[in-house]
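ZP: hey, is the zinc ion complex queued? I don't see it on the tracker
AM: it wasn't, my bad. submitting now with these inputs:
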Amino acid sequence: MNTIIVYTHPDCLLKFNGVNHPEKRERLISILNSIKNLKHPNIKILKSDYAAIEDIYLVHPKNYINDLFKKIPNNNIVSLEEEPYADTFLCPDSKNAILASCGAGITAAKSIMRNDEKLFFCAIRPPGHHAEISRANGFCFVNNIAVTARFLQKNYKIKRISIIDFDIHHGNGTQQIFYNDKNIIYSSIHQTDIFPGSGKIDETGNGNIFNVPIKPNTTSFEFIDIFKNNILPDIENFKPEIILISAGFDGHRLDPLASTNLESIDFYTITKMIKDISNNYCDGRIISFFEGGYNIKALEDSIIKHLLAMVEN
Ligand SMILES: [Zn+2]
């Protein structure tokens, strides 16, 4: 049995996107409650630190961040996009929420390199994998997983990092950030006909980008088969020193934003497969980042399965 630390910060709850927006604070409240109620002796919730702005600059240019923070309103919410694509909003508390969300990965990186534990889950919002170098989109502003990857490379002797993205949307931001980086491989399985539209199979970067688009209505059985045969072998060949996961749970059959038909238990199965690779190649080291997932009940069940697969060897 392993121990996993769940890093979170109360300011992640401050982000407000308007009343009918799917990316709502109740998502995080409910998953933290379900983790607490589980009372598992090997799943510990701890408070993480804010990200230092200099660490965010490892991925995003200063002028983008300054500009973003300048647009934060004093009241209400403002859209960063034009209609009909307006779904990425800033609210008065956005700066603290963004720094808190990004800080969990950095706190986990420091902790993993101190050898405190080997497994971490960042229970955070706003999510990050759609945030491009200089563009917020898809509810994302700062690419949390990308900042942690660059932070690990800059501050420690970690070079080879595998980023696995099983959120049902393609992580256009993460792909763009690492498109020509031989030391980081980005592997994504995502539904073809939904936002953001990128992630075609021929988007291969420097041979380090592995996109596996799947059809709408893909079943559990098909998804797991594709994940096992089309995502994992390239990661095994790469032999990473650490694995980072963009963990989105919107492939669940109950999710309102996609039409893939995963069950909660499938998140146990795919996490277990990732865990096996981490045990074989990188001393069991994984930092997982909460991305999407918009049906509260499905989210609670799926995240518990994800965490249990991590702790149960
Ligand atoms: Zn998603």
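AM: back. The domain at 4-311 is CATH 3.40.800.20 (Arginase; Chain A).
ZP: great, adding it to the tracker
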